[in-house]
Amino acid sequence: MQPLTARQPSPSAGMRQVFVISLGLFVIFLDSTVVNIALPSMVEQFGITLSTASWIINAYTMSVAILLVFMGKIADLAGKKKIYECGLLLFMASSLMCAMAPNVATMLAGRVLQGIGGAMAIPASMTLVRTVVPQEKAGAAMGIWSAVGALAIAAGPGLGGVLTESFGWRSVFYINVPIILAAGLLTRISLRAHADRRTRGRLDMAGTLLLSAGLFGLIHALLQAQDNGRMTGATAAEAAAALILLCFFVWRQRTAREPLIELGIFQDKNYVTGVLSNMLGGILLMGTMIISPLYLTQIKHFTTLKASLILTPMSATLLVAAPFIGKLIDRFGSRRPLFIGYLLAIAGFSAFGLLRSDTPTVWLVLLLTGAGIGIGTIAIASLTLSTSTVPLDKLATASGIFAMFRNLGGALGVVIFISITMTSMNINAPALERDVVQKLDQAEVSETAKASFLQEMKEAGGELGKPAGGDAAAIQEAGAGEAGTMQRIYESERMRYEALGIRNAYLGGAVLSVLFMLSLLLLRKRKREASGSNPIHS
Q: How far is residue 408's CA from residue 69's CA, in Å, rounded to a whole number?
């Protein structure tokens, strides 16, 4: 391997390059959530079921997660700048393919290609951001990179809603084309003098197949558990088979001459702590992004657009705070800010213990913003910590592993937060029925109408967002006035218990933060990294 040049990157030029790289990254992360709001329109356009339509989302997210490590290795071998630019080009072309898709098969193919492009660009962009700035600006650079990704995920539903309502669902894909084109051109100009280092070696195809199949099975099992609301026998079997494949992958990496992942990287306590903390960030972010809209739309009865706008400050605040967090990292190292991030996450998610069905909107914004700052601080500090001691020739692969764990954490977050919410609703179903009966006894309704309504309520089974009184005609026969009174009583109690379930999911996030915080014990005997010790710039 050739020695590194002694010339340090220019701080001002490097930060400009960080913003340019982050522009392309914004669109790639945006596509993980912006399409969700347009899904109903696609169902109507293509005449497909919601189950089939869900794969328009899953085809993208699974492709990204499965290929991140592989594409990180490709970036190490072929050059980070080249793979990043190719990833942007493929993402732009596949976005156009999705925008013009005449049928669902073309759409799914386009989404897979988008995922491949995203998997190429994400680890390569992380490496570029880490290397275009001098060591003393690394924290600020990684802060911007993390904040842009978080902002894109949070802004996706709102932007998707505006575009779909104003221009139709195809606009959520068309909008990618000019932005990616601009990002690609600016990248080519700003990085024209950047030395694109490559490493020698070859791909471990057997390891790649084992890792891809194992990740596919594991993520698919998690998605099935999410759709079913529980872990069925078939889903558990698929998850077990996936874990077996991943065990074979680990064995393969220990015996292969040129492994896809050098397992020695996990002997680096900095890297392991950073990866685990980053995984927690994925769990908390995607868990919050899945249950917060449920609370805002089903309990507060906000429109989808209003709900998405309430969620946006959670990441927008992070974007403003990111440079400050980065400066703290540049001055004190990653460990103290990471510890602070854990404390903020624990405090932020614990504060959701105050959540009620009638919580004022201003308090909701404050709670979400506080949780977002905690998540963001963990994300920025873990990213800087995990890359602080990784050699340059392994940085893209290490970044792919890092991003893969975040995506896996996101899938786990959705399952965990939804499972806690639904389990809480099921446990509290008898209490909900008891409270409704008590309120109905105090109301002026006939016994016949009450008996009919209670039967309908039992059939609803306390399912999240499902109202009682499905047989509206039967209730109407008992009298419109009585029906309205009973429905209002039920809705008030149901929303109270749904809010309790969602509150418990947030508190579960606080518990997870405490558990993952134990990973900091790995660092207790290590000194804070010195600014000159980073192999990237030494």
A: 12
Q: Is 522 exposed, middle or buried (0-12, 13-18, 19+ CB in 10 A)?
A: middle
Residue 216 buriedness (CB in 10 A; 0-12 / 13-18 / 19+)? middle
- C-alpha dihedral, 325 to 331 to 337 to 340, nearest 10°: -100
Distance CA 222, CA 194 (A): 41
Q: Average pLDDT across each block of 10 residues of the chain; the chain has 538 residues. List them in order.
A: 44 72 83 75 79 77 84 82 90 93 92 92 82 71 73 74 82 90 86 70 81 85 71 82 91 83 83 90 85 82 76 71 74 84 93 89 89 85 79 74 83 82 81 75 68 66 46 43 72 82 92 92 57 40
- Both tokens of 106, joined, read 């073309």
Domain 8-201, architecture per CATH:
Up-down Bundle (1.20)
Beta strands in 150-222 (DSSP E): none
Residue-level pLDDT at 491:
76
Which of 116, 92, 112 is CA-nearest to residue 180? 92
Residue whose token pair is 């070859």:
202
Residue 168 CB coordination number (10 Å): 14
Question: Do 103 and 7 contact (CB within 8 A), yes or no?
Answer: no
**Angle between helical axes of 335-350 and 304-332 (0-180°, round to 10):** 150
- CA 270 to CA 285: how far, in whole Å? 22
515 Cβ contact list (under 8 Å, min separation 6):
none
How far is it, in rounded angstroms, from Cα 375 to Cα 317?
A: 12
Which residues fall within 8 angstroms of residue 144, CB to CB, at 6 or more apart?
Answer: 15, 18, 19, 22, 129, 322, 323, 326
Query: Do 338 and 385 touch, CB atoms closer than 8 A?
Result: yes
Asked if 294 contacts 465 with a C-beta cutoff of 8 angstroms, the reply is: yes
Which of 427, 487, 412, 421 is closest to 457 using CA atoms?
487
Place of tokens 């201003």: 362
The count of C-alpha atoms lying within 13 angstroms of the C-alpha of 470, restricted to the half-sphere facing its C-beta, is: 11
Distances (CA, A) of 348 to 342, 353, 436, 447: 10, 10, 32, 46
Break the chain into its structural domains and give their ranges: 8-201, 204-259, 427-499
Residue of 176, 153, 174, 127 whose CA lies nearest to 61: 153
Sequential DSSP letters for 233-300:
HHHHHHHHHHHHHHHHHHHHHHH-SS-SS-GGGGG-HHHHHHHHHHHHHHHHHHHHHHHHHHIIIIIS
Do residues 294 and 140 touch, judged by C-beta distance below 8 A? no
SS3 content of the chain, % helix, strand, coil (to 5): 80, 0, 20
Amino acid at the residue 263: L
